[in-house]
Specification:
The complex is a heterodimer of chains A (92) and B (135).
Chain A: E1 3-6, E2 20-23, H1 28-38, H2 42-46, E3 47-48, E4 51-52, E5 56-60, E6 63-64, E7 80-85, E8 88-90
Parallel strand pairs in A: 1-7
Antiparallel strand pairs in A: 1-2, 3-4, 5-6, 5-7
Chain B: E1 2-5, H1 6-19, E2 25-31, E3 39-43, E4 52-54, H2 57-69, E5 72-81, H3 90-94, E6 102-107, E7 115-122, E8 125-129, E9 131-134
Parallel strand pairs in B: 1-9, 5-6
Antiparallel strand pairs in B: 2-3, 2-5, 6-7, 7-8
The chains are: A alpha+beta (92), B alpha/beta (135).
Chain lengths: 92, 135
Amino acid sequence: MAIEVRIPTILRTYTDGAKQVEGTGSTLGEVLADLDAKHGGLRERLVDDGGLRRFVNVYLNDEDVRFLAGLDTPVKDGDTVTVLPAVAGGAI
Amino acid sequence: MLTIPKDLHDKIVAHARADHPDEACGVLAGPAGSDRPERFIPMTNAARSPTFYEFDSTEQFRVWRDMDERDEEPVVIYHSHTATEAYPSRTDISYANEPGAHYVLVSTREPASAEFRSYRIRTGEVTEEPVNVVE
């Protein structure tokens, strides 16, 4: 089962520069664990003790997985996962 | 150096004024690799706050996918400070995750004038750069 995962510029240091990598798994969490085995350190940039990191957006096809089931979101063959760092900041 | 057409500069300032006292935010897209900002994309500040901004995640996805399809990239990422100077804060630096972008800051703390400054933010380091407004 192949899930395409699109990697933002800032995380391509973990994928030898690749914009897109493939993972397997039946949930988003499993796919990220699979990717981490091939691209060590990548998962830690996306996940912390509380689940998906606050300022990282992960989408399954067109939807932010926060509106689905987070790391438990089921994925199927042919799905695309996209990672985009949140754009944020403030006065302090 | 940031080279920016006057009309895009003016649109950013107008957006910041219009959203004051909330922070305004957005993107200038340009052809990938060109370093030329061409397309003005004001974004919703999902935080709607006078001291914080965050792009709405669904809107960001659509804009990023659209840029990808047009072979564009975010040349400028801008936002405003409404009571402090137009200089990147600690949170601005923490969340600057587009190493190729120029980070533009506008301050609307003075009613009669707007400060407009540009920076590179890479691996936690801020470098101010000159802004060249062209007709």
